[in-house]
Amino acid sequence: MSLVAHSDTKRVPEAMVMEVDPPEWTETWHPVSHRAVVRSLGKAVEQVGLQVLHKEYSLNRVGTRMFASWAVEKTGGGMHNTKVGFEIGIRNAMDKSMAIGVCAGTRVFVCDNLAFSSEYVAFRKHTGGLSIPELDFLSNRAVLSVAGNMQKEIDFLEALKRIAMGTIRFKETVFDLLSAGIVPPSQFEAFMESWEEERTIEGGPGTLAAIHGAVTRMIRGKSLIKVAKVTGMLRNFIESRM
């Protein structure tokens, strides 16, 4: 089955993710299907007292790599910050390219900017002999760890708002973003437009939070695999300047 007629990756419905069959096992490698990961993590999310509000998925062209974003909240509601929501990022690969893993994330509702931390709680890369009960155990442990980091993500965004961007510091930061490949030269104009929009929302001259928001705004609508890659790089970049 040709999943996505596209050279990169594309957002797809959950049903398409669940249809992807894993390759045949070998003596040393037992690839875990996307559907097994989704089902296991779904149970883990429920067990730690979270509920899923919305799900998004991306697959690569041949369906071997999957990334998911689940918007979650504590059972019964009660988000700490009504402008920012919690996200769980989930990744899985059936081509030996990366470990099964989950990470914390945020979604800023006012401009629908999605970002993930660069730190994954990885299960393990080599999945030989990984049984469903063991997958369930690892899922529960990983989700517990990520749930504990959710408030840290909110605090991270709040801290960025306290770091002002003067003219010189802004120019230096933009140059470094271009040099690091986080903002490609071809998207410089789009980044500057996003920067102005973020500054308008802040109602001031601009902060490091506006830089962060400009990059995540710029990649809005891209595949979740692309979003995870860029925002992970961005997170490391921003933390080095705090």
H-E string = EHHEEEEEEHHHHH
Q: Mean of the pLDDT scores?
A: 86
The gyration radius over C-alpha positions equals: 19 Å
Shape descriptor reads globular
Please identify the structural class as seen in this structure. alpha+beta
DSSP strand content: 15-25%
Number of strands: 7
Question: How is this structure best described in words?
Answer:
- By secondary structure, this protein is an alpha+beta fold.
- It folds into two domains: 9-150, no CATH class; 159-239.
- The chain has helices spanning 14-19, 34-47, 132-160, 167-179, 188-202, 208-218, 224-239; strands at residues 9-12, 50-60, 65-74, 84-93, 101-108, 113-116, 121-122.
- Strands 1, 2, 3, 4, 5, 6 and 7 form a seven-stranded antiparallel β-sheet that branches.
- Strand 5 (101-108) and strand 6 (113-116) form a beta hairpin.
- The chain is globular, with a radius of gyration of 19 Å.
- It starts with 8 loop residues before the first strand and ends with a helix.
- Mean pLDDT is 86; it is low at 1-7.
Helix/strand layout:
Blueprint: E1 9-12, H1 14-19, H2 34-47, E2 50-60, E3 65-74, E4 84-93, E5 101-108, E6 113-116, E7 121-122, H3 132-160, H4 167-179, H5 188-202, H6 208-218, H7 224-239
Antiparallel strand pairs: 1-2, 2-3, 3-4, 4-5, 5-6, 5-7
Helix pairs in contact: 2-3, 3-6, 5-6, 6-7
Summary keywords:
242 residues, alpha+beta, 2 domains, 7 helices, 7 strands, disordered N terminus
Structure at a glance:
The chain is built from seven helices and seven strands, in the order βααββββββααααα. It is α+β, with helices and mostly antiparallel strands and 242 residues long.
